[in-house]
């Protein structure tokens, strides 16, 4: 062994384990998502089986107490190398080192990586920089990384995203591989913020030329999301636990999961919608009207002079220093001044006499959604008077009630394209995006358009509030019918929803949704209407008609695997809407058509499809 630690300088305990060769290596596979091949193994150290020092946490905690952590790291690497060679491990061997251990390891200045002694080609080694010790000066650490690379080894950042793993190190040390910490990976299929964080790391990896390894993969759903977002490789219990003699090939179940034909449903739509709704930049600045001000001691004649000079000005702010203290509305002021003798009586008096001394103040850093609270407030004077825009409390300009209503409306319309504001389900843009992903990957799926029969009469009879409750109930029922890792549920608008099913049990799920909704919707009716079986109302021609209970109809289009190139998202949505119209005429409320032939209607249970619709 070229790298030796003097046992006489190490306190008893860890030195004894090293001297007696009581350390053992275990290995966990690192898998390529492209073909399921094992790229290599991470070598991990364990103490004597069944002893208090068996776990690596206990082992290194003792080493820290005995001040021999680097000696333990060097010995652990030696044990892992010898064991890797003995079981004829294939691919790369990943070894963990702290910054201090790497500095000591490369301090000899030799031309080759002294640890290996020819036992293992250094070109088959990846050295992972762990978070056990901080790097105060990354420039000072660069020669250490250069020494590793000159010996042929690759360099990796371990547990990226936590503790000492930082973007600063990534930029300065140019790692060949970056291993993303399991915190960001575990549950990524359901966590939009984790998804966005990993996607940001992926973009930077592409720019820097580094390969990403996702740590901590424990379920198929997380694997499929990582695979479909373009992460190249990973490790975790899903592929195999650390073993003394690990498998040389991936297990069948894990291999099948990597090759799964369905694509992931990314957990991103709600987060994007929230971002849109919160607004971007400074919306107040876009609404700002740059207008002159008057001091508190100005007269009403001074106000009249400003309004006459600037006929487009809707209001005028009164300030004390730079702080706005009042707002004078042009129309209200001029109407009063036009009364007989008002100019003669009030012209030389202070302008505060006709001013609103408690104007609405809006900081220009506020988002549109924060401003929207004004629309629901009891004080609606801002609609006529406008409002004052401030910068850290100092006067900046004016805004009009009209511009505020327009800004809030535009943002909410834009947000609704990403997520429905009532159900928070993905809107039209995420729906189209997911259809495009399905088509580009030639994945087979069922596009199912969902509509509610008799919803308009119910809404007219019971009001929009109760109608919204029915829509939220429908969204809940449909969400419960979907597998969130395979099936995409979106809200087109109103009582229209769209499900992109990849589940093999899609038909059973769709039928369950219809049955559950049809039974549950009756609870929204008054007892008398439930007994009557529905309500009386007017049809579109104004005639009195009896309407039954609100029910669900689902029209489905089957898009076969491999046929993606023959379709567009718009065409599929149109076909699904066509199938929905057919389903609304069927007693079963469910119709399926073949996407390869829009004229071929295949009703459920083999019943002939109605041509109405």
TrEMBL record:
Pfam families registered for this protein in UniProt: EAL, GGDEF
- InterPro entries named in the record: CBS_dom_sf (IPR046342), Cyclic-di-GMP_PDE-like (IPR050706), EAL_dom (IPR001633), EAL_sf (IPR035919), GGDEF_dom (IPR000160), Nucleotide_cyclase (IPR029787), Rev_trsase/Diguanyl_cyclase (IPR043128)
Q: Which residues cross the membrane?
A: none
| UniProt xrefs under PROSITE patterns | EAL, GGDEF
- Give GO terms: molecular function aspect only: cyclic-guanylate-specific phosphodiesterase activity
Q: In what residue span(s) does the GGDEF domain sit?
A: 443-596
**Record domain EAL: where:** 7-256
Xref: PANTHER family:
CYCLIC DI-GMP PHOSPHODIESTERASE PDEF, SIGNALING PROTEIN
**What's this protein's name?**
EAL domain-containing protein
């Amino acid at each position: 062994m070229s790298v030796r630690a003097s046992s006489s300088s190490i306190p008893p305990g860890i030195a004894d384990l090293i001297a007696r060769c009581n350390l053992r290596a275990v290995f966990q596979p690192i898998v390529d998502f492209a073909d399921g091949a094992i790229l290599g193994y991470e070598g991990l150290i364990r103490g004597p089986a069944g002893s208090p020092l068996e776990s690596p946490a206990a082992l290194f905690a003792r080493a820290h107490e005995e001040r021999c952590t680097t000696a333990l790291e060097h010995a652990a690497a030696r044990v892992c190398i010898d064991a890797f060679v003995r079981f004829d491990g294939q691919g790369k061997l990943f070894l963990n080192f702290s910054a201090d251990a790497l500095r000591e390891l490369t301090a000899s200045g030799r031309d080759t990586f002294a640890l290996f002694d020819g036992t293992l080609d250094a070109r088959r080694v990846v050295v992972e920089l762990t978070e056990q010790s901080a790097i105060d000066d990354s420039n000072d650490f660069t020669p250490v990384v250069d020494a590793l690379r000159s010996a042929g080894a690759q360099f990796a950042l371990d547990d990226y995203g936590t503790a000492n793993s930082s973007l600063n190190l990534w930029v300065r040390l140019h790692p060949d591989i970056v291993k993303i910490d399991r915190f960001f990976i575990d549950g990524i299929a359901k966590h939009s913020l984790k998804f966005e964080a990993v996607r940001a790391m992926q973009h930077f990896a592409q720019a820097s030329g580094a390969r990403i390894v996702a740590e901590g993969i424990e379920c198929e759903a997380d694997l499929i999301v990582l695979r479909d977002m373009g992460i190249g490789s990973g490790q975790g219990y899903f592929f195999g636990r650390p073993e003394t003699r690990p498998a040389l090939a991936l297990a069948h179940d894990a291999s099948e999961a990597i090759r799964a034909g369905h694509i992931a449903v990314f957990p991103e739509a709600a987060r994007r919608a929230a971002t849109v709704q919160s607004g971007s930049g400074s919306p107040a600045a876009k609404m700002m009207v740059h207008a002159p001000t008057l001091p508190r001691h100005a007269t009403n004649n001074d106000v009249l002079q400003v309004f006459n000079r600037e006929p487009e000005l809707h209001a005028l702010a009164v300030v004390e220093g730079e702080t706005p203290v009042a707002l004078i509305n042009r129309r209200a002021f001029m109407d009063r001044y036009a009364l007989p003798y008002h100019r003669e009586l009030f012209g030389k008096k202070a302008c505060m006499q006709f001013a609103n001394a408690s104007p609405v103040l809006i900081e220009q850093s506020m988002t549109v959604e924060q401003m929207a609270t004004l629309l629901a407030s009891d004080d609606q004077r801002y609609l006529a008077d406008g409002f004052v825009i401030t910068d850290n409390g100092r006067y900046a300009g004016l805004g009009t009630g009209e511009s505020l209503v327009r800004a809030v409306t535009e943002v909410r319309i834009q947000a609704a394209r990403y997520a429905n504001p009532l159900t928070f389900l993905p809107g039209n843009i995420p729906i189209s995006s997911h259809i495009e992903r399905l088509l580009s990957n030639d994945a087979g799926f069922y596009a199912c358009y969902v509509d509610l029969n008799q919803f308009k009469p119910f809404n007219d009879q019971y009001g929009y509030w109760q109608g919204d409750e029915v829509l939220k109930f429908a969204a809940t029922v449909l969400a419960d019918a979907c597998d969130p890792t395979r099936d995409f549920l979106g809200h087109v608008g109103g009582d229209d929803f769209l499900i992109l099913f990849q589940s093999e049990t899609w038909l059973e799920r769709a039928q369950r949704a219809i049955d559950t909704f049809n039974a549950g919707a009756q609870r929204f009716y008054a007892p008398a209407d439930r007994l009557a079986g529905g309500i009386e109302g007017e049809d579109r021609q104004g005639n009195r008609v009896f309407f039954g209970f609100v029910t669900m109809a689902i029209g489905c289009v089957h898009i076969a695997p491999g046929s993606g190139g023959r379709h567009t998202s718009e065409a599929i949505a149109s076909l699904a809407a066509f199938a929905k119209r057919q389903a609304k005429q069927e007693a079963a409320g469910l119709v399926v058509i073949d996407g390869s032939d829009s004229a071929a209607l295949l009703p459920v249970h083999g019943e002939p499809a109605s041509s109405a619709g």
